[in-house]
Design a protein that fits this description.
The chain is of the alpha/beta class. It has nine helices and 15 strands. About 30% of the residues lie in helices and about 20% in strands.
Length: about 325
């Protein structure tokens, strides 16, 4: 769709848009500020592609976020990808959708992780225990190619405005859910406006709503995100898509609350212990081959992970342990 006052509405042939009986462009759903393009007309495809070429050729953009990408034919996106990557081979295409056909013939590099986002909300609000979130990992792995990147988030522009900030939706589970977005397999974590300074505000959707200068101050949230970003960049096991390690779970005594997961590639291992519940629990699990010396990714201290772990965990607590090979 375009805006209803876009130049195309008057400047292009009538069949560039789907039309009502009175000739006005159709409105998709209740999006009254938009006009619905006609993708049965291949000239519309060319117009869209030429507009995208302009931004790549004239302004050097390195990618596009494609809004509601599932609403137009996948063949259009395949044509977009072929033509634009001929100009810029590493062009990044992100779909605001999660249909599995988005990756056919390499159309998109990444798509949104909507399902896992809603599951994280549900676990945070205790609408369910951990099982559906755990099941998502294996179901998602089966549904997408290994190269597919999934953008994961605790908030974005829609969720923040219409469903509330992550402070409202996730409460005391907010930090552990943030950490999860950096740990999920194939994930590309999103940091939405204001999250980097812990701004607990639902932004107005259609009006300018800037962060007040006095609220834009570094704090605990800033330090947490810096640690998580550093962790992700320094550990190949946490890379997106097929470059990162698969998730391997360590079985434990409280699997409705506790997830212990390993991601590993040659020369790098990450072990995460996550109490995804509002309960204090006593953890009991065997690490086996994963026992050894580690560094805590958030605290920085050296940690020994024993062969048998038995310890009490506070509600919504977690630790992320990093192991790299010893230098000769």
């Amino acid at each position: 769709h375009t805006a209803r006052d876009a130049k195309w509405v008057e400047g292009k042939p009538a069949d560039w848009y789907e039309r009502e009986a009175d000739g006005s462009p159709k409105v998709p759903w209740d999006w009254s500020d938009t006009a619905k393009l006609n993708y049965e007309n291949h000239e519309v495809w060319r117009g869209q592609i030429e507009a995208m070429r302009y931004w790549v050729e004239k302004h050097g953009v390195d990618g596009f976020r494609c809004d509601m990408a599932m609403l137009v034919p996948i063949e259009f996106w395949q044509e977009v990808a072929r033509e634009l990557r001929a100009l810029k081979p590493d062009l990044f295409l992100l779909a605001e959708a999660e249909e599995t056909n988005l990756f056919h013939e390499g159309a998109f590099n990444a798509c949104y992780g909507w399902e896992v986002h809603h599951l994280m909300n549900d676990v945070a609000q205790q609408k369910c225990r951990l099982w559906p979130l755990r099941d998502w990992i294996y179901r998602d792995r089966a549904n997408y190619p290994r190269s597919a990147v999934r953008m994961t988030f605790t908030s974005n522009h829609d969720e923040n405005s219409w469903s509330g900030s992550e402070f409202e939706r996730m409460g005391p589970a907010r930090e552990i859910m943030t950490a999860l977005t950096f740990l999920w397999p194939q994930s590309l974590p999103l940091i939405y406006t204001g999250q980097e300074v812990g701004y607990d505000h639902s932004f107005a959707f259609f009006e300018s709503d800037p962060i007040p200068a006095e609220r834009y101050r570094e704090g605990e949230d800033t330090r947490l995100y810096r640690k998580l970003i550093e962790m992700r960049h320094q550990n190949p096991a946490l890379r997106s898509g097929e470059e990162g390690g698969e998730v391997i779970e360590i079985r434990n005594n409280a699997e409705d609350c506790l997830m212990v997961m390993v991601r590993e590639v040659e020369g790098n291992r990450v072990v995460a212990e996550l109490n995804l519940s509002p309960y204090s629990i006593h953890a009991d699990y065997c690490t086996g081959i994963y026992a050894g010396q580690y560094r805590d990714a958030i605290g920085g201290q050296e940690v020994e992970l024993p062969w048998q772990v038995e310890r009490d965990l506070a509600p919504w607590s977690y630790r992320i342990l990093i192991q790299k090979p010893e230098k000769n």
